[in-house]
Backbone:
């Protein structure tokens, strides 16, 4: 049996480390010189308002430039970098443009003649991936000859890990992203994610683990300097090895299980050959999930329970909550946390996503988002309904809902939503290993 090759390389220096990962994995061996190549980094999030932690959140520009250089060495002229990042307003084109410029893609364009694009300014094409999964993909990636998939080595609070397969979710349009978070039994988010890769052109996957992320995908996770690269011409093998490096057996990651089953592949890496570093020498357990405390006094994340908050029942997010509600869920929780003055609230429940059910005995129920509002707008079990109907919900409506529920949240937080990720920068002060220059190209 021909085993799939996966290289694990310690990141030591520019170009040489990525070159080693590519050579050991033979990842570009089937790339022809006239190929049209599409590079997919992971720019999961961006804000123009404040500096924010990018370590373990966004693919380093260091790795992106190194890949471009290696492609140019192979005579590749037609190179496009593309991403569809999450912003508060899907019509916002200035934030993605700012991200590309900050990350040095403009310099890459001048220096190497590459192109870069925001997929939301480009056409999408509907693909039928079987089993009822129909998604609209960016046409630039579909019409390329070869894809370089550059995710970050990170855990994800819904999908356990977010690596090469999950990174492709950034290539589908917004309605498709929302559709992935459906509630069909046996066909949940994991099932849909596993299919993202099925109609991709040939790919090379390089997991950028210069920095890694616990409880990702965003800057509120725990970010580590990890100095690893994981590379393979087979994305599923790269992801299974990446999962082990993050401390998970592939069978603990539902979308990898679906992807392996779809290809009649084992989950135990018995058809994979790892070269370079050995997994056991580099693996480090990364938590993927936020822990919640559930008592008769409330349901809230553990740090808020330790702070003593009582009377708020904020059920833990589930798979049906899509990316756009996830983006503002942290704001809602922070607003509640900062509003705590020591007096218990009067049984206020917050429901999110599409499938949560109201708890008996609650006095006020905030329905956050159009989906959960539609699900419960006529539910007789809700004593006082406080709907926040937007999709995604608007910050002002969220603030009004908290006030109506008796939680005196600070309006400033909601007016400056773009600035919130800046709070996390304090954790990295005086730590030179968290180096911003990895995200710049001089
Ligand atoms: S309401 Fe929220 S969970 Fe529902 S589709 Fe809109 S953004 Fe997603």
Residues:
């Amino acid at each position: 049996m021909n085993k799939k090759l996966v290289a694990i390389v310690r990141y030591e220096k520019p170009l040489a480390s990525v070159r080693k990962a590519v050579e050991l994995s033979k990842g570009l061996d089937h790339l022809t010189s006239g190929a049209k190549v599409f590079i997919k980094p992971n720019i999961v999030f961006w804000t123009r308002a404040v500096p924010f932690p990018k370590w373990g959140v966004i693919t380093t520009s260091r790795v992106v430039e190194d890949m471009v250089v290696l492609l140019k060495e192979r005579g590749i002229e037609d190179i496009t970098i593309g991403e569809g990042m999450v912003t508060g307003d899907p019509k916002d084109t200035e934030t993605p443009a700012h991200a590309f410029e900050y990350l040095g893609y403009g310099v890459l364009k001048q220096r190497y003649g590459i192109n870069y694009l925001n997929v939301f300014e480009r056409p999408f094409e509907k693909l039928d991936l079987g089993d009822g999964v129909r998604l609209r993909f960016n046409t630039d990636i579909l019409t390329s000859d070869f894809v370089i998939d550059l995710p970050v080595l990170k855990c994800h609070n819904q999908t356990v890990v977010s690596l090469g397969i999950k990174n492709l979710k950034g290539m589908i349009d917004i309605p498709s992203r929302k559709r992935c978070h459906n509630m069909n039994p046996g066909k949940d988010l994991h099932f849909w994610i596993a299919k993202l890769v099925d109609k991709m052109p040939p790919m090379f996957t390089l997991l950028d683990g210069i920095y890694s992320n616990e409880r990702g995908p965003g800057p509120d996770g725990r970010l580590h300097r990890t100095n690893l690269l994981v590379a393979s011409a087979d994305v599923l093998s790269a992801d299974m090895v990446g999962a082990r490096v993050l401390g998970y057996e592939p069978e603990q990651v539902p979308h990898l299980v679906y992807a392996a089953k779809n290809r009649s592949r084992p989950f135990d890496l018995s058809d994979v050959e790892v070269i370079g570093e050995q997994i056991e020498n580099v693996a480090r357990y990364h938590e993927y999930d936020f822990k919640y405390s559930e008592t008769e006094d409330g349901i809230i994340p553990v740090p808020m329970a330790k702070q003593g908050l009582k009377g708020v029942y904020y059920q833990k997010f589930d798979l049906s909550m899509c990316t756009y509600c996830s983006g503002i869920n942290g704001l809602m929780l922070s607003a509640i946390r900062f509003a705590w003055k020591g007096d218990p609230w009067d049984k206020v429940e917050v429901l999110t996503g599409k499938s949560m059910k109201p708890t008996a005995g609650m006095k006020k129920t905030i329905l956050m988002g159009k989906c959960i509002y539609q699900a419960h707008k006529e539910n007789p079990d809700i004593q006082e309904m406080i709907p926040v109907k937007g999709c995604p919900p608007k910050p002002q409506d969220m603030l009004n809902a908290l006030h109506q529920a008796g939680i005196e949240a600070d309006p400033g937080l909601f007016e400056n939503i773009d600035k919130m990720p800046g709070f996390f920068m304090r954790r990295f002060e005086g730590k030179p290993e968290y180096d911003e220059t990895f995200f710049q190209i001089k």
